[in-house]
Amino acid sequence: MNGGLPRLRVERARLRVVELPLVSPFTTSFGTQTVRRALLVEVEGDGVAGVGECVAGIDPAYSSETCAGALSTLRDHILPSVLGAPPADVAGHARSWEWVRGHHMAKAATEMALLDQAGHATGQSVSQILGGVRSRIGCGVSIGIQPSLAATLTAIEGYLAAGYQRIKLKCKPGYDVELAQAVRQRFPGTPLMLDANSAYSLQDVDQLRALDEFDLTMIEQPLAHDDLIDHATLQAQIETSICLDESVESLADLRAAIALGSGRILNIKAGRVGGLLPAAQLHDTCGEAGWPVWCGGMLETGIGRAANLALASLPGFTLPGDTSASDRYFEQDLLEQPFELAADGTLPVPTGPGLGIQVEQRRLDEATVHLEELSPK
Ligand code: OSB
Ligand code: MG
User: Fold this and answer.
1) Same domain, 84 and 233
2) What's the rounded Cα separation, in Å, for the pair 224 and 271?
3) Confidence at 3, pLDDT banded by 50, 70, 90
4) Residue 115 has what pLDDT?
5) Which of 170, 232, 245, 343 could form a disulfide with 267 if both were Cys (CB 3.0 to 4.6 A apart)?
6) Same domain? 33 vs 53
7) Distance between Cα 170 and ligand 2 center (Å)
8) Which residues carry out catalysis?
9) How many A from CA of 329 to the centre of ligand 1?
10) Do residues 363 and 70 make contact, with C-beta atoms less than 8 angstroms apart?
11) How far apart are CA 312 and CA 361, in angstroms?
12) 1 pLDDT above the threshold of 80
């Protein structure tokens, strides 16, 4: 981590809710999404602006946070801690909201905006600030539960043709072994994994062990969203590596997961763990434990996507992430230049100051469904 971030003020903030239709419905074991509603945090102070994206969903299904809940927590608790406060660096501002329990996605959005602001003040990219070492990120794609097996195979074919380096399929009980078998048969050498979003219990161990046959690179979050003990029991009974997502919301969770052997791989999402700086800490701890990591996704707009690419430029992100190109999600992203996949299945890490992106103002205004201005009390 770069030590020298400037001390800046936050004199004004804006909370903006945008809605972007998804190019196709996204179905997981917890539900179907057809539109991405995202909450943006815009800050301004000392003549420099920054923007961050909150990844909370419309419903509290992936985690307990929601877009509406984050809006009120940001308005009433998190942003008042920094608005009008003495100049501070990003970590200093983050300490001022440490008293707020939970609400990691709301905190992460504010921290992202402050890192963007700091980067604009110094000319550094967020990747540089975090200590990134990579200029391009290997990308996988996360494919939702499809209406049929045939539709799944067709979707995979398209993404592989575009260059994606690995396929992740959402699964659930009854949509798992046959799925893996059919996909493996058709695409024998493709790096393949499943994500259950907590749809199983230890009673399903036979079903989960049956997946060992299909050479999966991992199975993501098979068991309960808040469990570490059962994941450890399961990991001891299956060969496929478990990757944790929902169960690790903090460094304390990660330490427990490593000590217990609850898995072998971590999906890191800055929103889930309270920011990019905490995410970088989790990355370091995984490195010490020998756990490879990859950058997860939350169907972000180009703003959050830029932050994900910066995070994924850290050295321990050795596996392709869910950092897919803009057109995998949206007809029109919010950026002047959407993220486009190169033929080798990579996306570039932005190199400009801060997040290194340019938001297209007209598109942003079109997508905005709610806007509020905040100033110091
Ligand atoms: O579990 O990783 C997940 C999307 C929304 C909520 C949870 C998850 C996901 C994805 C999509 O898998 C990742 C992406 O492409 O952004
Ligand atoms: Mg997941």
Assistant:
1) no
2) 19
3) low
4) 98
5) 245
6) yes
7) 8
8) 170, 269
9) 11
10) no
11) 27
12) no
